[in-house]
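Obj.: predict assembly geometry.
Materials: sequence records (below).
Method: joint structure prediction, all chains together.
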Amino acid sequence: MRKFSIFVAALFALLAQPALADEIGRVKNVTAGGIEVIRGDSKMRAQSGFRLMEGDIVVTGAGQRVGITFLDNTRMAVAPSSRVIISRYRYDRARETGESLMRVDRGAVGVDSGNLSRSGRMQFQTPTSTLGVRGTTFVIEVDG
Amino acid sequence: MRYLLALGGALALAGCASSERVTLLAPVQESKIANNEVGAIAVLHGGTETVIDMANEQAGLRGERSPRVRQLAETDPRYTDIMRGLPLGSASENFEFAVGQNQLPDQELARLKSFLERYIESYTAYYADIPEDQRPAFHVIIAGFSDSSGEAAVSDADLERINTDLSTRRADTVRGQVIALVREAGIPIRPDEIDSQGNGHFAAMRKHNGARVVDQDFRIVSVTVR
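Observations (raw structure tokens):
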């Protein structure tokens, strides 16, 4: 009986607090119809509120745009006809530390960096180059 | 032959033109604007780096070769257009527990209500061009904290666990208060968009250089909305 009570209490605790585990950011403002997110072998349609995970690939078609807010308060605007791979994103919100590595394969992204960039462990890649971000606002373009 | 040379020259020029660029912009975030915080980007190449650190400074990326750096006279309108796609920035504020209490007092709850309402005003203005039913949902994160105090006999690992648990309970309690508050006040934030987390004593440890200190400043929750 006691074990059952503990199980029920644990279940209620889980229900009481929505899990944030694995979520690295959310799709916020997005063009009507959403955009495509590739996760592993799956292609998903991401609307506002979609929870991104490490490894996701964000793809916008012609005329599509998406704004993303990451856990460390980094904001990203992905322009039309772009492809961005979130290769690595780790952020410990209690310690305010972590690292990220994102690759802009094509298109353009605008970024207003958040807490991660203050530690100097936020990096972006393009097909040819690697960039270290130090607390700043910028646009990366990769012509197709 | 002449045509072949011309074609070769054109291809060579195309090869030199950089098809990848990074451009630093003036800050758009209020706190960065206040501190004139332009920041910097380090372009890593061939075991070294080239840093750009001025607004409207642009680096043409060339892999292992040095980037081509130039200063733009003004912000390219294309960049202004791209940055318009950023989501609204987040807002955070701290709220204090009274001594001996594990719930926010009414005065702090009133302040929290006003904080959420102010954010909603900014949100409405920021997303004015987007139809109401397509605007992004709010996300509220309530982070609890604790000070770094603890008996000398308690191990560091146990103290970390105890204080993380304490801060989690504080955050969970305030989450319940916020859910009730938004429901009563008709604030359009869904309960499933209100999360809580325990941040433990790490901020207190940073402030006190790792020492165990009783500090009322950490009897708080930080509420972030974005």
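Conclusions so far: The first helix of chain B runs from residue 2 to 16.
To do: check interface contacts against the pulldown list.
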